[in-house]
Amino acid sequence: MSGGVDSAVAAARAVEAGHEVVGVHLALSRMPGTLRTGSRGCCTIEDSMDARRAADLLGIPFYVWDFSERFKDDVVDDFIAEYAAGRTPNPCMRCNERIKFAALLEKALALGFDAVCTGHYATITTDASGRRELHRASAEAKDQSYVLGVLTAEQLAHAMFPLGDTPSKDLVRAEAARRGLAVAQKPDSYDICFIPDGDTSAWLAERVGTAPGDIVDRTGAVVGSHEGAHAFTVGQRRGLRLGTPAPDGKPRFVLDVRPKERTVVVGPREALAIAEIAGSRYTWAGEPPADPTETFACDVQIRAHADPVPAIARVVERESDASGEPSGSAASVSSGASVTELVITPDAPLDGVAPGQTAVVYVGTRVLGQCTIDRTVSAVPVPA
């Protein structure tokens, strides 16, 4: 129970369905006195009090479990390391993967509980063989299956999402009001929960430090300078402060971030088009394809609120690059070794994809699996 309206209504529906329900709030902050600022942040002391009041109204036991150390190690430190390596991570994916459906689920099962129930908007179905599948919610505008794409078959076997069939968030708020839940009109949280002021660049600068370097074009020509590569993300246009204008006078965008070289690569808007993405850190949400090394049709989604794009995908084995790592990958392998990747080729180029993002693969409404993007292939060749 995060302290928001969705988890409160999910708990109420679980109680109404006859389950034995225990409310758990996760203490994830290393500063438990932190208060929520408007709709920024979550898991604060104010949120825990809201969750407790909802549990009291529902007549269920309520506990606060301290996962702050695990959250720091598995989500916050991972976020810092990914940015330091030039990638753009999604901390919500890591939190679902390593906290809510790993650390929390492990403890719940050890204590004899059957499932973790959350307020996510997604649905779980069971096929003819009894295998569980993760699907999109009925309300596409609120669908959260993307951030659950990291769940495995074992985790799906112990997950419940009571809000998945609800057509809209307004109906959930109205239900909360009818039930007398004080959080009925509480604003949704947004941005990164452990950076409540929203200034990601300043927050990272304190932890990663600054390392001045060059801004170059696709040919390697220096066109500007920067104070730290961590402050840049693929697709960024503003704040580049380039000393050399483009020959055609058009704006330039960040195409690649290379912190080891302290270099940021910029280029024209059309060079953000990506023809292929691949990741060695991939998982299947339930039953995988019969033979994932055979090309299969799918849809791919690269952001929580992006539209799915038709694509083909398959698992391939390829040699790592000369550095001993797949381009952009966090995985360390010996030079010349091979790496197994989920390679996804969209029917039409994707726009502004950055290593570190998560690509979730769908077949119809079903979440088939996901990968953390290690490398991308531009649809526009580098000029000679």
TrEMBL record:
SUPFAM superfamilies: Adenine nucleotide alpha hydrolases-like (SSF52402). It holds the Pfam family tRNA_Me_trans. GO terms for biological process: tRNA wobble position uridine thiolation. One of its GO terms (molecular function) is ATP binding. The active site is at 95 (nucleophile), 193 (cysteine persulfide intermediate). The keyword Transferase applies. The record marks 120, 357 as: Interaction with tRNA. InterPro entries: MnmA-like, MnmA-like_C, MnmA-like_central, MnmA-like_central_sf, Rossmann-like_a/b/a_fold. Residues 142-144 are annotated as: Interaction with tRNA. It catalyses: S-sulfanyl-L-cysteinyl-[protein] + uridine(34) in tRNA + AH2 + ATP = 2-thiouridine(34) in tRNA + L-cysteinyl-[protein] + A + AMP + diphosphate + H(+). Residues 341-373 form the tRNA-specific 2-thiouridylase MnmA-like C-terminal domain. It comes from the Bacteria. ATP binds at residues 26, 119. It is found in: Cytoplasm. GO terms for cellular component: cytoplasm. Keywords: ATP-binding, Cytoplasm, Disulfide bond, Nucleotide-binding, RNA-binding, Transferase, tRNA processing, tRNA-binding. Residues 203-267 form the tRNA-specific 2-thiouridylase MnmA-like central domain. Coiled coil: none annotated. Its EC number is 2.8.1.13. Catalyzes the 2-thiolation of uridine at the wobble position (U34) of tRNA, leading to the formation of s(2)U34. HAMAP family: tRNA_thiouridyl_MnmA. Belongs to the MnmA/TRMU family. This is tRNA-specific 2-thiouridylase MnmA. It comes from Agromyces rhizosphaerae.
